[in-house]
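Quick one: structure tokens for this chain, please?
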Amino acid sequence: MALQQIIEQAWENRDLLKEQNTIEAIRAVIEELDKGRLRVAEPAGDDWQVNEWVKKAVLMYFPIQAMKTIEVGPFEFHDKIALKTNYAELGVRVVPHAVARYGAYLSKGVIMMPSYVNIGAYVDEGTMVDTWATVGSCAQVGKHVHLSGGVGLGGVLEPVQAAPTIIEDGAFIGSRSILVEGCRIGKEAVIGAGVTITGSSKIIDVTGSEPKEYRGYVPPRAVVIPGSYTKKFPAGEFQVPCALIIGQRKESTDLKTSLNDALRENAVAV
């Protein structure tokens, strides 16, 4: 509570960023994020709670940090934020040229192929971040998630009340999918290749006799592919992108088997 109070006061009065106790408080929050003891957003029953004050600390971390040169072997970077370290101690596999910034949390068993994880992100146990996947600032990724090659999880820092992109436990995200603007992917959902979902995207369940529509939210175990619908404009009618729920993972089988079944039965490319 003491940290939160200092952060809230500094957010309202930026002159406090010059004071040492404010600087120490902001850096303490970033350290807690790095170790996974604090999160920008966390589960709250069936929903998620956004910790706005933590996002405020991340935003205020940038102005208190000086630019510096970071040398890693023959490579050189010039930035305000250090790179994450101690991967062996954390139990995280990091393949060159994967990069995670200090202030991002990577749990035990995470695998980072050449990819990027930004400050404030939370990547839970056993998750695969595949080649050229990007986990944006403050994105929340659950346990045993697979982010396929080229997946883009959007970062959300401002506005501070906005929910980050959330991928819940066991989800499979197909290649080149783009999930941004605080959208939420439910547990064990399967997102096919090339699906784009924003916080306001139409996600239409077409498995029943009548379509059922969601906005920016994919229910648990849903199997999703790219789609489109017709929308009227002053210039005429045109096709607008959406996402289609075309099936479900079966609860009766384990995750690996149900994933294979879901892909095979619904002909979903990943």
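Residues 101 and 247 are 37 Å apart (CA to CA).
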